[in-house]
Amino acid sequence: MNNQFAFNKISCVIIEGHTLLLKTLAQKLSKDFPEIDLKGMANSGLSGFKKIIKYKPQLVFLNTELPDMTGFEMLNKLNRTEFETIFISSSSIHAIQAIRYNALDFLIPPFEFQELNSAINRFKERCQENMSTKAELGSGMKIEQNTLDILSLRTQKGIVNLRIRDILFLKAENNYTSVYLSSGKKELFSKTIKDFENLLSDKGFFRCHKSYLVNLKFRDSKFSNRYFQLSSGDQIPVSRRKYPSLKVWVMSNNENECYY
């Protein structure tokens, strides 16, 4: 196991409708797994949704059955690439569906130490795999960590450096991606929008549509379930599935937004 996990905390949210199970899991994580940083707990799908938007956890423990919706229905409202999910259920009836949702693990209470330890180790292993994937992308894409946050992209003409804060939005063009800048310029790169999402999702960018990745820093004071207005005047399409999570994110960051 990579030693980096001895130093890095794993941000976590628990979403469990049964109060006793919620408290029991929280206590066991706190007692036996010091690497877990429990950011929040929720007892419903709606409150859990808001916790995920607010804290942006790396790991989510999620019951398949919640008072107001199923765990799967809640996940459908979110960008699932931003965190790993460990499902909780009183029976194995939802196990197959959990696999379809790329579940990290599937736990049936009571929560035994060995099962929790195995699930958390699996999370660490998957993180390493994802880091390796990003390292491979680094052959053509990487972020220089400095005060400006520079996105470096290798092209046939050489290295192109873009300041992340200058990127308005990105648009998928088949296997290419157009990057629109605040200066009015547009750059085309031979990378998919998914490649860019993997690098920029923790930099304030949101995949509001299958073809668009938008820099939320440039949001205007209003948006609807059809489009997202940027301060540049550009209107970015918003998919029906992404609208709820986009709305909650904006509401949690600015109380003066207008919705239609």
From TrEMBL:
Pfam families: LytTR, Response_reg. Residues 151-247 form the HTH LytTR-type domain. It comes from the Bacteria. PROSITE patterns: HTH_LYTTR (PS50930), RESPONSE_REGULATORY (PS50110). The lineage of its organism: Bacteria, Pseudomonadati, Bacteroidota, Flavobacteriia, Flavobacteriales. One of its GO terms (molecular function) is DNA binding. Residues 11-124 form the Response regulatory domain. This is Response regulator transcription factor.
